Amino acid sequence: MTGSLKKECDKAAQILKGFIDKRRIPVEVIANAKGLAIFSGFRAAMYLAGAGGSGVVVARLPDGSWSPPSAFSVRSGGFGVVYGVDMYDCVCVLNTQDAVDAYMNSEMALGAGASMAAGPIGGTADISTKDVKPIWTYTKSRGLYGGLTVDGTIIKEKAAINAESYGSNITAARILKGEAQWPSTTQLPEVLKLAEGKKTDAKSLGAISTEPTPGDLKE
């Protein structure tokens, strides 16, 4: 695995574990998800060059396992900020196949053609009575959960990074359909198991960085 994809996967593992450790995303939500997009971003108020960020997306395969990760970049649209935060972490839970399919395109806008809503909270919350939207979002900024919407955020496949890791003929669609091998040396698969309530390798989880993620930064 290239350093670039490894870095994105490690960051995604750290972000997702943070949400799980704080019991923000119910196990049932992850267990029933068709896919997950995990990323960090920032807004133009902090960086004059414009708003952006990066992350990875994984999809549920027919056998119930997760596809390898596809890397993407983020260009933030007109999202709303409640806490005046410049940097944020986000987990998008993709609840429908159409929501997953959107990430198979080279570029897409969050919320375009797929209804989004803040996801249910709680480590073991009962979601059987919840109105399941195509995409549930979980955000964190300055260490505070919620308060940020990501509608209009532009997601663009990082084709070069994917090609470096999987081969020149690879596409996001092929990766998310499981037509590639999981890269090695990342803790992301173990964190995905943890998020679903499955048995995990404690040693692997212990290797995840405890440094603040972008959504924890105060400035």
UniProtKB/TrEMBL annotation:
Protein origin, superkingdom: Eukaryota
One annotated GO molecular function: phosphatidylinositol binding
Disordered: annotated segments: 199-219
Ranges where the Ysc84 actin-binding domain occurs: 76-193
InterPro entries tied to this protein: SH3_domain_YSC84-like, Ysc84_actin-binding
Pfam families in the cross-refs: Ysc84 (PF04366)
Protein name: Ysc84 actin-binding domain-containing protein
